Structure formats: C-alpha cells, structure tokens
Amino acid sequence: MNAIAEPKKRIKEGFIGQKMIVLPPNIKKSITNNALIKGFYLTAIGYYPKAAYHDRERRTGSSEYILLYCIDGEGYVYLGGQDHVLKPNTFFIIPRNVAHRYKSSETNPWSIYWVHFSGLNSQLIYERSLDNGQPVVQSVPYDSSRIKLYEQIYAVLEHSYHEKEMEIVNINLLSFISSLVYYKQTNPVDYDNDFVSNSIAYMKKHISQKFEVMHLAKQQGISASHYLRLFKQKTGSSPINYFNLLKIQASCQYLYFTDRSIKEICSDLGFDDPYYFSRLFTKLIGMSPSKYRKTHKR
C-alpha cells in the first residue's frame, strides 16, 4: 500500500448518528440453510454520517465482500497497491480475503452506507461490478428510492431476525446492490450519447419515413464514411438494414395489436411496395405477414 499520512486518531466506529447491525452467528447459520436466500445475503450493515477520522485496515482481508457507497464527503480505499477515491454518489466493492484499508478524508469526511455480503452468488455479483476484471470506483446518480430501500432493510433488521423477515431483507438487499452494480444496464439512455445510439433513437422517432445514409450521417454531423464505419462497428449491420429491421419490428406490433391491413401498415412504415415489404418481413421473421397475424393475433 502507498504511504499514507497518519491521522491524529483512527476510529473504526462510534460516529454520531451512526447505524450498525452485525448478524449473530446463529442467524447467519440459519440463512445458509435457507434455499431462498443462501445465494446472496448480508452479514453486517451500517451507515456512518460525517465519519471524521474513520479508518479501517484489515491486513488479511475480510471473509465477506464489502460495499462502500458514499453519498457525501470524500474517502479513500487502498487495495493491491492502488488508491481509489470515493466522492459523493460513488461506490466500491472490496473483494473478500484481500488486504485493504479504507479511510475518510480528514478535511471532508465521508458519509457512507456499507454492507458486508456473502453467499453462493456473491462472487458473481462482485464480478459484475468489475471493469476489465479490476475493482474500480463507479459513479451513480443519487436516487432517493435507493436510500429508502436501504432504510427499509435496516428497519426490518431492527424489528426481527425471523425467517420471513430475513428473506425480505436479503431479497431487498439484492435489489439495493443491483441498483448500483447494474445502473448502466437499467438506464442505458444516460450513457448512450454516442453517434450510433443517437442515430438509432432518431430512426425510432421517425419510423414512418425513408432515409438515405447521407441524411442520417448529416443528422449526426459526421461524414457518411465515418458514420457507416461507426454504425457497422457497433451494430454489425448497415444503417439502412438496421432501419428496415426496426420497421419490421414495428410492423409486428401493428399486426398483433391492430386490425390495419398489410397495405395500410406498409404505408404507415414508409414502404411503397407491399410485395417488397412482405418479402423483407418473411426474410427477417421467417414467415409472411399474413401468417404472422394468423399465428399470433389474439
């Protein structure tokens, strides 16, 4: 670990307003015998607000994974010779059985939610948080519903350790951690600001129109050759073929949910030739539009 200027004092816990629950050994044992939650469960949970001089070091690591979710202030994680900085709306998962140290900034102490978790599936969840196989600090927008879910987990634990309570606690825990680990996947619009994603969104918005590559490239403000190369790299398809696929997917919805004629659907989606539309539909879907309607129509 890198050399760190030692603070005036080092505190593991005992902060004003802190919350902390550590499950008793018998409760942890009962969880490991519960088929519903033994795959993923917490062993300890807490919240440290404005945790001045918070400093924790484990020279042999922890037997559980540790989630640190910072909502205010700043702190640091030292792991495998790397320094990781946590700022508001970031999180980090420390792998199990690896030496580490984490500490709050002395001048701007962090406020963190933390969880120790284990179970048969805990490693899989941890691996989903990695970037190219390495643990990294990740940013996620603040979400009050995420905090509310955490508080619900804590409130249930304060009330009871009975079987059903432990089940809902750990089901909600998976939702809480998933809201961090899978944020990008569940909120793709927040991340898809590239040319190709914007172009696809444009296609969907103007599904009834007909476009040439030159128009689509100009709409994104790049050359046609650059646009074609980017589009092919990301989708594996040409822009026009992709646009036609979107149109055929839309036509499936019309065939399923409406009584419009095939000719009307063609017109709605910008196809001048119903025969061309039928051939393209059959090629992509594997059956004719009329057969699709007969097969799938309610």
From TrEMBL:
<dbReference type="InterPro" id="IPR018060">
    <property type="entry name" value="HTH_AraC"/>
</dbReference>
<dbReference type="Pfam" id="PF02311">
    <property type="entry name" value="AraC_binding"/>
</dbReference>
<dbReference type="InterPro" id="IPR003313">
    <property type="entry name" value="AraC-bd"/>
</dbReference>
<dbReference type="GO" id="GO:0003700">
    <property type="term" value="F:DNA-binding transcription factor activity"/>
</dbReference>
<dbReference type="Pfam" id="PF12833">
    <property type="entry name" value="HTH_18"/>
</dbReference>
<feature type="domain" description="HTH araC/xylS-type">
    <location>
        <begin position="197"/>
        <end position="295"/>
    </location>
</feature>
<dbReference type="GO" id="GO:0043565">
    <property type="term" value="F:sequence-specific DNA binding"/>
</dbReference>
<dbReference type="InterPro" id="IPR018062">
    <property type="entry name" value="HTH_AraC-typ_CS"/>
</dbReference>
<dbReference type="InterPro" id="IPR009057">
    <property type="entry name" value="Homeodomain-like_sf"/>
</dbReference>
<keyword id="KW-0238">DNA-binding</keyword>
<keyword id="KW-0805">Transcription regulation</keyword>
<dbReference type="InterPro" id="IPR020449">
    <property type="entry name" value="Tscrpt_reg_AraC-type_HTH"/>
</dbReference>
<dbReference type="InterPro" id="IPR037923">
    <property type="entry name" value="HTH-like"/>
</dbReference>
<keyword id="KW-0804">Transcription</keyword>
<protein>
    <submittedName>
        <fullName>AraC-like ligand binding domain-containing protein</fullName>
    </submittedName>
</protein>
